[in-house]
Amino acid sequence: MDLLNRRTSKWSVLALSIACLMLSLLGSIAYGQYVISSKSVWTAFWAFDPQSIDHVIIRTTRLSRALVACLVGAALAVAGVLMQALTRNPLASPSIFGVNAGAVFAIVLFSTFFSVTSLNTFLWLAFLGASVAGALVYGLGSLGKDGLSPVRIVLSGAAISALFMAFTQGILVIGQEGLDSVLFWVAGSVSGRDLSMVMPLVPAFVIGMVLAMLAAPQINILLSGDDIAKGLGQNTVLIKVALSLLIIGLAGGSVALGGSIGFIGLMVPHMVRSVVGYDHKWLIPLSALWGAILLLCADVISRFVIMPEEVPIGVTTAILGAPFFIYLARKGGTRE
């Protein structure tokens, strides 16, 4: 059951979550192998000095890294909410749509056979591969007289993921020079992007999450069951197609930008649901905020574990998420 039933309490959680996001952003920008004071962080935005090392580090490295963590964390969490609603499976996560495997396959394919090395190009190739894999999963999951089935779409996702992983391994055996380029997407990372690469993607992520929030009332109706939803006049097929496209877009964009980062889409929806309940009008925006906070914190942790080296952020989220997944499995997929 949700801990907060009163609307005022939920608004308080929203305000507190926004405050925590601001603090997490500050921590992501300030802390690392080279610690920057909060005063320098502030002046880097409002009184930039190109002669200041702190300001240059913030503008060229830390800011873009924090922004990537926010976008990827929020998008993965919202995609997880939508995935669990669409499949009605509490253990579902965006990777079920095969987006990770599809993105990695596209990168390995083009880096091996077409000698692609540009990070910008890899980003779009990853999104293309993720989209193709998601479309295949949705198509297979929709076959049959009953249309889209939660069980069928999970099985289709597992099959497509295994297929793309097998293709990827086969290509890497043929051309091992593609191994270095794929390691980044396999492990997951939010570093190495500059603002010129990230900023054009911000509107797409924001639009996707806004559309998800606008769809919240329809998702609430859909969760009451197909028969009831149809009785209330809902076009369930159209809603399921729209949710699938949003999942592919959000999850695919996340993989393209940050690589294969697991467990965010699984953990965050359950964490938020335990506090505010099943109303997606609250669940979606709070999941976006908590997903961003969680990935920002995971990124900061990754910088300190084996300093001066960094642990891939995908490893950190896996360490955090694996016990949570085991707990959910033992409880039958619920936290209530």
Automatic annotation (TrEMBL):
Its main location: membrane. This is Iron ABC transporter permease. It comes from the Bacteria. GO terms for biological process: siderophore-iron import into cell. The chain crosses the membrane at residues 66-85, 97-116, 122-141, 153-175, 195-216, 237-270, 282-301, 313-330. Pfam families: FecCD. It is a multi-pass membrane protein. Keywords: Cell membrane, Membrane, Transmembrane, Transmembrane helix, Transport. PANTHER family: FERRIC ENTEROBACTIN TRANSPORT SYSTEM PERMEASE PROTEIN, SIDEROPHORE TRANSPORT SYSTEM PERMEASE PROTEIN YFIZ-RELATED. The keyword DNA repair does not apply.
